[in-house]
Amino acid sequence: MYDQIREDTLYIMLYTVVTTLAMIASCYLLLRDGNSFAANIKTPVRLRRCVAAFFASIALNHLWYMPIFFLTSADDIMMTDFVGGLLDCMTFFPLAIIVLFAMLQDRRRPLWPAFVMMAPVVAGMVWSIVTRSYALHPAAYIYLLLMCISLVIYMVRASRQYGRWLRDNYADLEHKEVWQSFVVLSIILLVFVSYASVNEGTFYLYAMQVILVVLICYLLWREETLSDLSIPVNDTTEEMVTTLSIRSNIGPLLKKYCEDAQLYLQYDITANQLS
Most buried residue, 20, 96, 243, 254, by CB count within 10 Å? Predict the structure, then answer.
């Protein structure tokens, strides 16, 4: 397969385009505050940073595999493949899971489980580098497939909870966030399955790059058009809610936090946040 890579100029050009596209998209999200697709929408800062990190991992993923285009020694190619696989398991795969978590805004989900899920594969890749053997790779591929199944089950449950939260708080959104989250999940799973089960032949090489282009474009548009549904709660507001003096100071507090702050102009406020 690596001989095909070195001889296929068209594939090298596509590979370079994907690398460049991922780098530009990552820099755009990190360096630009506003949106180009929907200038009037404020997007979640957490999601924006996670997507930027994911795009950066795609670009780096392509950079650390690029020496394969020029290496001729089978041993050097094998080590490059091992090191690239290790770096993928430490960056690309956990960041893909983190992006899925960050898209659901009903609660702030912890991100560390994504790295824990990849820990067994990371350990297996380290063992492969030390022993210079592909012996553990079939087990790693099976683990990745099982992880994909578990991730789908979790995302179905989490998206149903997210849908109920949207129905209770944002009836005007028509739950579009839920089904679009599943679109991103489906594209990411295509990358997972392709990486884990089909890794030979020219079709695989081109399919992976095409899938990544679709993922970058769609995820960039998705991040730019997703409204931030969270409202930051500062210390003063928490103190106002918890203090006992609220009963005697309700008039001035309402004026300060509702009238002066123009709370009534916030179109997406929920009953719970208002209370």
Answer: 96
